[in-house]
TrEMBL record:
<protein>
    <recommendedName>
        <fullName>Lipoprotein</fullName>
    </recommendedName>
</protein>
Amino acid sequence: MRNCQLSGVITGNLLLRYTANLVYSLNGGVRIGRDIGGAGDKPNGAQGILTIEPGVVIFGASGADFLLIERGSQIFAEGTATRPIVFTSRTNMEGTAGDNAIGQWGGLVILGRAPIHTCIGSGITGGSVNCESQVEGAGGFYGGATPTDNSGRLRYVQVRYPGFEVSTNNELNGITFAGVGSGTFAENIQVHNSSDDGIEWFGGRVNHRYVVITGADDDSLDTDFGYRGNIQFGLVYQRSGGGDRMIEAETTGFDLRSPRSRPTFANISFIGRRAPNGLLFRGGTDFNVWNSVIQKDQGACVQFADAFTITTDSANDKVGPPNLRSVFMACAGGAANGSGGVTTQQVTDILSETGRNNVLTGTSTLTGTWFPGANELAVTPFNANGANSFFTNTSYIGAFSGSSDTWYNGWTCGLGGSTPACTVAPTPIQ
């Protein structure tokens, strides 16, 4: 098998063609473009455009190998349901990555010019063109005042065995979306066995459909710095041997600058195996979770931390407690947990408010690990489209309508059915 090596800074247009018995590798941090700044006028900035054909395989050999898309540059990685694009590790290519392998290369980082609220320097207004921050792990800058910024298209993409701790609290995730705008298309994405978070968002507005996070060793989905995007249809499945929260949501420790984090996730099935509580909301974040299922072998389903998280403060754009509606909860540690000035009873009372239609003490009837059974199907869904036009109304909660609804088949790994084991090397052979 032939190997084409990528390295350094790439400007202009680069096409990675699909060719039988050809793979691509990352030699260190590969950067597409040079940062153009929040206003698009940064000296020496230059656009790069990376296009990847369906079926292409790209691998890294260590945590120092990552792919980064700079502000103003784009990636067009569009696989198909039968020929996904796969980012993975050298050990996976060699067939030696085990079921619990993690952190074997850096990951994918996309930086954009959409609003964030945590800025380098003092006296800078959050969400302004001059509000920028430096991304964890890779050193690039992101942020600006273009909510619809377009960093390209991702579709039918796997990211296997990524993640790397550069230093304490300075880590590469499976995929990092930092200041990425709503003009970016990102659907049908799987991150498998990341050593850090599966996906982390630092501000921005990018939206997603059909997201699969399997085996993340830290948080599966992590939102921060004023992220206000939407996700519909997702599966989060933890390994028994690793994993922290399935959602960790905050808005950077009580930072009162706008935009405040306010994501909306709908039709997500959360299958937890680890002791920490399943969904953690803290630091004053706003958040919507609609039409979803939470099942955990250990720990509580939902934790609210910090009194400001459950506060309504219109002067600081704080709309109130996290808003869960039509969520079925079946967790060994109960539905609710409170900390940092929030009591467990307060969390229970919020989740139980009239009109929320949550099931707090459900008995799981899931079949085949994540497909809904009678109890989950008995929950009346919330009218998501009526509240947010991004969403499609469904007649069911969770990611799947039933056991025949296998939208993940063909383009993911490790989920049974027609999906290959993730440990099997993804070889581009016609």
